Amino acid sequence: MQISTKVAFAISLIMLGAGTVGGAVALQQGEQSRLEDFKTAHDDSVELLAVSVAPAVAEERFERVQAVLDNVHNFKERFPDVVDIEIVRPDGRVIASLDPVRYNTVIDVPIPQGQSFAVAETKETYTVSRYIKLKHSLGKIRATFSKEHLNARTEVLMKQALMLLLFSISAAGVALHLVHRRLVAKRLSRLAKAAGEIEKGNLAIEAREEGSDEIGELAHSFNTMAKAVRHYTEDLESIIAERTEELQAANKRLEQLATTDQLTDVWNRRYFDESARRALEVARRNERPLSVVLVDTDKFKSVNDTFGHPVGDEVLKAVAAVLKENARKSDLVARFGGEEFAILMPESGIGLAAQAAERMREALESDVRPRVDALGDRVITASFGVAAFENASDRLEDLLSAADVAMYESKESGRNRVTVANRHEVEDPPSASSLSGEIALEKGMAADGG
């Protein structure tokens, strides 16, 4: 057996071993990455589903909850991995399920104490259990997803990687045999010394190009490679800077996705909660005013029922845009869930916050409909609830609860109005009072810094 064949065979074996190990590691990492993406996507979908059905569960409109699950069942091409979904009341009774037989049966959906969700995983399935909440727990949702598509994809990738590895090793073995068959010791030694200089950092070294045969071509190729390495080294800092800039842009986009509501392009609930808690702490520490406004789009269900969900989405976008346009730069407008929005108003007491809410209410009444052509003559209005930071012991939950009570009083009083929460403990006080009855407060609250 010729030495060139021996060298080619030996190096091919080494490449085969290294390629097998590297390929196995890469496949394992890829499989783990795809599994994590699978879990994250379905965790988010279950969380979104829990938020979307929460209002219907709270109002015991179980047929509405079942309708949501029926949509999941009817659009299997959009939800190929869904095996089962169950909505369970706190007493364990099933109020909605992809399997109608399970309706009203009692099941156990365990979630560890102190946690908001739990997962269970087998080789074939992935199950997520999560609480359904508004102000308090309304029940639980449990969804089971199949890993069939994920496992099938992994198997295909493994076969493709194996075939690519075998092809690469075969091609490398043939190429090595052809190259090593014509090696000459002295000329190879000179090339080795030149390579040693490159290793030491002497990138200006050039191999002697002797003759026009394969070794001469190899020397020429070596010199070309050395020049490429030299140019690559010179451009490396520029390349690193470009990649760093791309990474920063990607990280900024990821941060935006994590804090922004994708439909309305305003802040999401998570970002609102974090920002509001920080702002409340600043207001408490510096004894500054702060107000919270909750906004609920009136009769939004009838908009969806009459015009369809795409038009409903356009209405929500328009509502968010009008609120944002009429808010101050320092105010924070967020989508709170469904058709409900929240506005954080730092440095605004109850009077100025109520004035701002009334301005927004009027803007919604006049500006939303022209932005959505499909609405025709349908006017979109909203009900507002306003609450302010008053006591050092106030928590964000207290402000939101007070604003929520005021908002629902707006709805019960005929909708399309602003109601200010009355949190003072006086004899026979109302839970909240209409803005029209609180105008007198404006004069006395202008000095609160808002």
Description:
The protein is α+β, with helices and mostly antiparallel strands and about 450 residues long. It has three domains: about 5-150, Beta-Lactamase (2-Layer Sandwich); about 185-260; about 270-450, 2-Layer Sandwich (Alpha-Beta Plaits). Helices cover about 55% and strands about 15% of the residues. The chain is built from eleven helices and eleven strands. The strands form two sheets. It has a six-stranded mixed β-sheet with strand order 7-8-6-9-10-11, with helices on both faces. The radius of gyration is 33 Å and the shape is elongated. The N and C termini lie far apart (about 90 Å). About 30% of the residues are buried. The model is unreliable at about 425-450 (pLDDT under 50).
List the helices and strands and how they pair.
Layout: H1 3-58, H2 62-74, E1 82-88, E2 94-97, E3 117-121, E4 125-133, E5 137-146, H3 148-180, H4 185-200, H5 214-259, H6 269-286, E6 290-297, H7 300-307, H8 309-325, E7 332-337, E8 340-346, H9 350-371, E9 382-388, H10 396-412, E10 418-421, E11 432-434, H11 439-445
Parallel strand pairs: 9-10
Antiparallel strand pairs: 1-2, 1-5, 3-4, 4-5, 6-8, 6-9, 7-8, 10-11
Helix pairs in contact: 1-3, 4-5, 7-8, 8-9, 9-11
Observed structural traits:
single chain, 450 residues, alpha+beta, Beta-Lactamase, Alpha-Beta Plaits, 3 domains, 6-stranded mixed sheet, 5-stranded antiparallel sheet, disordered C terminus
CATH superfamily of the largest domain: Reverse transcriptase/Diguanylate cyclase domain
Distance between the termini: 91 Å
How many beta-strand segments? 11
CATH structural fold name of the largest domain: Alpha-Beta Plaits
What share of residues is helical? 55-70%
Could you say how many structural domains there are in total? 3
Question: What profile does the largest beta sheet have?
Answer: 6 strands, mixed
Q: At the first level of CATH, what is the class of the largest domain? A: Alpha Beta
- Order of secondary-structure elements: HHEEEEEHHHHEHHEEHEHEEH
- Using the 3D structure, state the CATH architecture of the largest domain: 2-Layer Sandwich
Unreliably modeled segments: 425-450
What is the arithmetic mean of pLDDT? Answer: 83
- The strands making up the biggest β-sheet line up spatially as 7-8-6-9-10-11
Strand content: 15-25%
* Tally of DSSP helical segments: 11
